[in-house]
Specification:
Blueprint lengths: L7 E14 L2 E14 L3 E5 L6 H8 L7 E6 L2 E2 L5 H11 E5 L10 H11 L5 H11 L15 H13 L5 E5 L7 H18 L2 E5 L3 H6 L2 E6 L2 E7 L4
Parallel strand pairs: 3-8, 3-9, 6-7, 7-8
Antiparallel strand pairs: 1-2, 1-4, 4-5, 9-10
Helix pairs in contact: 3-4, 3-5, 4-5, 5-6
Length: 234
């Protein structure tokens, strides 16, 4: 069942990220504040280098801010140590990356089973088989990533992300390495799975068609939130 859309599941307060470069201090994010409600699909858009992927990495707890606070559901992410953040990701977060991030020495089935194994969940193979069938890969269970097309690899990645039934799904340019027709099929599948499970989607994209499929888009420029738009196609 889809959760109440009025309840914030991601909250960001005063978020900044600075790094040192040979030219001096570089500001990647500057004093960001935002909320994302449970069940929403939100696109983060902006030019290359605007800070989109940095923001996504921090929201997922894969990177650490210089200042600011982030809550996932009721947990303050950076009040936890690295192990605590990893445990929180394991319990409520799914990921889809532009480069698929499949382990090359594991079959499609083994890649999808992996997060279930890490979570010590029961009956992992039947769940993984069912999810791969759900994304149209029932005949490709024992193929390795190099034996799959780009679209098939991304469908494995989607199956891997959704098999743990995450509360929040983070996606970084999920169609970036796909041709337009394959990308459109992957987008359809992504939102179909989202409707079934009710996960909140937060995605970074350059794809206007994908951004329009989301309920809201947030535009980042120079590390700052400069615009917010309701898209409403969902």
């Amino acid at each position: 069942m889809v959760e109440n859309i009025s309840r914030p599941i991601v909250r960001v307060q005063g978020l900044s990220k600075r790094v040192m470069s040979p030219e001096g201090e570089l500001v990647l994010l500057r004093d960001l504040n935002l909320e994302i409600n449970s069940g929403e699909a939100v696109a983060i858009v902006g030019a290359s280098g605007s800070g989109k992927s940095t923001l996504l990495g921090i929201l997922a707890g894969l990177d650490v801010p210089t200042e600011g606070r982030v809550w996932l559901d009721s947990d303050e992410l950076f009040a936890l140590n690295e192990d605590g953040r990893a445990a929180l990701r394991q319990s409520m977060v799914g990921f889809i990356f532009q480069s698929f991030q499949l382990l090359p020495n594991l079959t499609a089935l083994e890649n999808v089973m992996l997060p279930l194994e890490l979570g010590s969940m029961p009956q992992i193979e039947p769940q993984a088989r069912e999810m791969l069938a759900r994304v149209g890969l029932a005949e490709r269970l024992h193929h390795y990533p190099k034996q799959l097309s780009g679209g098939e690899q991304q469908r494995v990645a989607i199956a891997r992300a959704f098999v743990v039934q995450p509360k929040i799904l983070f996606a970084d340019e999920p169609t970036g390495n796909l041709d337009s027709a394959t990308g459109e099929r992957v987008i359809d599948l992504l939102f179909e799975m989202n409707r079934e499970q009710g996960a909140t989607i937060v995605l970074v994209t350059h794809d206007d068609a994908l951004a329009r499929r989301c309920s809201r888009s947030l535009r980042i420029d120079g590390g700052q939130l400069v615009a917010e738009q309701l898209t409403g196609e969902l």
